[in-house]
Amino acid sequence: MRVVTLSAPDDVDGWRDAARGLLADHVAPDAVVWQVGDAATDLFAATAAGPPPAPRHDAAAPAMRVPRAFLDLANNAALHQDPERFALLYAMLWRLRATPRLTDDHADPLVRRIETLAKSVRRDIHKMRAFVRFRSVSDDAGERYVAWFEPEHHIVRANAAFFVNRFASMRWSILTPEVSLHWDGAALQEGPAAERGDAPEGDPIEEVWKTYYASIFNPARVKVGTMLREMPRKYWKNMPETALVPQLLATAQARESGMIDKARARESTVGDNARAAWEALRDEASACTRCHLYKPATQTVFGEGPVDATMMFVGEQPGDQEDLAGQPFVGPAGQVFDRALAAAGITRAETYVTNAVKHFKFEPRGKRRIHAKPDAGEIEACRWWTEQEQMLLRPKVTVALGATAARSLFGKVMTIGRERGRELRLPDGGAAWITVHPSYLLRLPDEAARASEYERFVEDLRMAHAALG
Ligand code: URA
Prior knowledge:
Elements: E1 2-6, H1 12-24, E2 32-36, E3 39-40, H2 43-47, H3 68-77, H4 85-96, H5 109-131, E4 134-139, E5 142-148, H6 156-166, E6 172-175, E7 180-183, E8 188-191, H7 205-216, H8 224-230, H9 245-250, H10 252-264, H11 268-285, E9 311-315, H12 320-325, H13 332-343, E10 352-355, E11 362-365, E12 368-371, H14 376-393, E13 397-401, H15 403-410, H16 416-419, E14 424-425, E15 431-435, H17 438-443, H18 447-466
Parallel strand pairs: 1-2, 5-6, 9-10, 9-13, 13-15
Antiparallel strand pairs: 2-3, 4-5, 6-7, 7-8, 11-12, 14-15
Bound molecules: uracil (URA).
């Protein structure tokens, strides 16, 4: 029996090195016990009866190529609190030798179990990014921000780079029951585990979060179930804005009726807050795992444009070029869109442009990636982000480019032929127009039809623009 001792519960590098060595030595999973420090983590090996270890490996044999998909899965799953995680991952690595495409077999019980671990870890990483709340304290060197967070898994170190990038110019500490992180504006240091009482209680910075939260709370779309799913109650005690929820719910109806007027009378200070809130939202979306589309895509392609734009355009989803560039509508459809905007007298730089689905969905064909239409579940999963963009911007006019955008904005199937050419109302009361997607124009085989449809498209944009008044 081999005993592998890892230095910490998130010692993924240690696991990887040990796993490589074991594999090279042909040590079967049943013959390995994994532990962290002195504690055995490996209930799996202790309970699983298996064949004796295989003979030692021939040193001249080539090293196994580990598929990228497995490494991605392992990097997350290894941070789970499940004591069997390291053994399970090694068992999967072992099987990959004979079945290199094992990661694609989502029906396989081991693959499924590891995928579930990885998903739970990704969610925890996302929750930490979304729910850490800093309180300010003063020390000899000036202002410092301290937050308390209780993760479910061993994710704190893995999340450190995110907080360093996001709050690079602040001095901050994040205290957790496993480890503390301290950033002094130049270097990151680790400290020991902390207790809740080590972090300060509420202070004025909570007002920032409360203002942000109240400004993105849409009284016209109160869905308590969804709210609880996105912001589980266990996080509430450390989040100042949750104190607002009962009051916001209670006054939702009254606020709804005043919302549109209020949006139009926004003050400039709110504009600054809105930019900061938008940046926070974009950063959060960059780690989105709300549906499976994030897996093969290069990155989240979030909306782009000024947060005080009065006109917002919503497309379907990023295409191949947008996926690589990280910006919406920069490929062939984007060129048609830009030309039509100019013809309608609209300056793109003054508009906000986004997509209903924020990851590129495609089917690989040889070296090419062929656009695949997002399905209802994917549109619904991503709708959350578009709603947040809408709530932050509160544009005077929103234009849905194509059926997917219309479905996302209206929450139901809309027929373009029937609905285009007139002003519609979104569920939150905002004005909306529906027109075709620019790529529809690119697909028309007949040149005359293409020219006349293009003119209709420009006319739709002109009408929507005129509705700004
Ligand atoms: N099509 C879209 O809907 N959006 C883009 O960003 C590009 C193409």
